[in-house]
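tool_call: predict_structure(chain=1)
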Amino acid sequence: MRYLLVDHITAVEPDKSIRGVKNVAMTEDFLEFHFPRNPIMPGVMVLEAMAQLTGWLSAVSSDFEHWFVIENIRQCKYYGFAFPGDQVELEVSVSKESEDGSPVYLGLASIGGRKKVVAEFSGRTLPLSDLDEVELKRREYQVLTRTLPRR
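tool_result:
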């Protein structure tokens, strides 16, 4: 994965919902050209952050057997921008099931309690072991949830 867009997972309810944050730093290389001298986090990167957070929900809900991959954005609305220095609060929840029985997710990105992006999306789950080392993902999850045992 080129960009890791979830900096902290703040709450998880397996099979239901997950919350996390993305801190937008001026040093993010995607800000260099989006836009020169007026950096704004691209909206597609906010969607990717939601997809990555959904991956964590899928992993936790399956004891790290599966990872979510986004395939279909059913609806997406933008209400504002994320700038360097902003902390984007992300929430993803299962909203319903699609015709084939797979979950449809509702994602919300907000900054300071103000809605910036709302998206409804779906996808599929893949075996996590096909994508990454499971034990490394478990450790990364501990880092993101601040539950890594201290030495």
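agent: DSSP finds three helices and six strands in the chain. Proceeding to next step.
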